[in-house]
Design goal:
Elements (H helix, E strand, L loop, with lengths): L1 H5 L3 H13 L7 H12 L4 H13 L7 H12 L2
């Protein structure tokens, strides 16, 4: 996924975020997961927006921030 993600492909960016979140095929790094979810989310990728909401809700790779989680969940729901 890395090559496609670096080229701006939102599906690959979201998938790479999942890999980093769980340590699948890469060293687990929740901060990098949030970075990749964000790259996809700003491209209106609904699943990445939802994943980013989860990160903010539960403090995964970022400080817990419930209002920010709601913002990302809302964006995802509006897709």
């Amino acid at each position: 996924y890395t090559k496609a993600a670096e080229q701006g492909y939102a599906d690959a960016q979201n998938n790479l975020g999942v890999c980093f979140k769980y340590g699948t095929g890469v060293t687990k790094d929740e901060t990098k997961a949030v970075e990749w979810f964000t790259r996809a989310a700003v491209q209106a990728h609904a699943q990445a927006q939802f994943n980013l909401g989860l990160c903010f809700e539960h403090g995964v790779g970022v400080d817990e921030n419930k209002p920010r989680a709601v913002e990302w969940y809302t964006k995802a729901a509006e897709q």
